[in-house]
């Protein structure tokens, strides 16, 4: 007696880990998930309230192929500086692109809660200015020092020459 499998029966799937690549742009992180052989309706992207991004997919059994259909499940913890409500996904040519915009820092929050950070920034700025000015001052001092040393060396050379010439002429007159 022959039995047929109904649509509700378990199907055999090949589980795989898709290739993923991160792209970093200004204000945006993009995750590219390579899913060859998958269609848009085969892929699902969800984010929960704990900040876990779940990407899953299961190929449909439309075509008869020698290999079993594939499925995958990938979970990623999104960054705390990511704007979860702004996450968008796009599927094109077997590549799922998930755009995750970064949160824009609120200036009033930064100013109110970071008095120490502002002080540290001011100190760092002034120390950088002082370092720059000291560097200029040391360059000026070194130029002045070189000129003074050259003057002293010239004076010593002229004095030595005068001493060399003066005693000979004094001895001749005696």
Automatic annotation (TrEMBL):
Signal peptide positions (record): none
Alphabetized UniProt keyword annotations: Stress response
UniProt keyword annotation of Secreted present: no
Positions of the SHSP domain: 10-121
InterPro entries: A-crystallin/Hsp20_dom, HSP20-like_chaperone, Small_HSP
UniProt keyword Lipid biosynthesis present: no
Domain of life the protein comes from: Eukaryota
Family: Belongs to the small heat shock protein (HSP20) family.
Protein name (database record): SHSP domain-containing protein
Provenance organism: Prunus armeniaca
């Amino acid at each position: 007696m022959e039995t047929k499998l109904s649509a509700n029966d378990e199907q055999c799937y090949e589980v795989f880990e898709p290739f993923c690549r991160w792209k970093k742009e200004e204000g945006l992180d993009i995750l590219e998930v390579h899913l060859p052989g998958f269609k848009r309706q085969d892929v699902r992207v969800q984010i929960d309230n704990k900040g876990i991004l779940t990407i899953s997919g299961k190929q449909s059994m439309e075509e008869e192929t020698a290999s079993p259909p594939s499925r995958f499940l990938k979970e990623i913890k999104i960054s705390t500086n990511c704007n979860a409500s702004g996450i968008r996904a796009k599927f094109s040519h077997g590549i799922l692109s998930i755009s995750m915009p970064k949160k824009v820092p609120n200036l009033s929050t930064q100013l109110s809660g970071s008095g120490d950070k502002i002080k540290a920034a001011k100190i760092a700025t002034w120390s950088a200015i002082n370092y720059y000015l000291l560097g200029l001052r040391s360059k000026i001092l070194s130029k002045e020092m070189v000129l003074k040393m050259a003057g002293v060396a010239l004076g010593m050379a002229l004095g030595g020459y005068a001493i060399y010439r003066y005693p000979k002429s004094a001895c001749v007159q005696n």
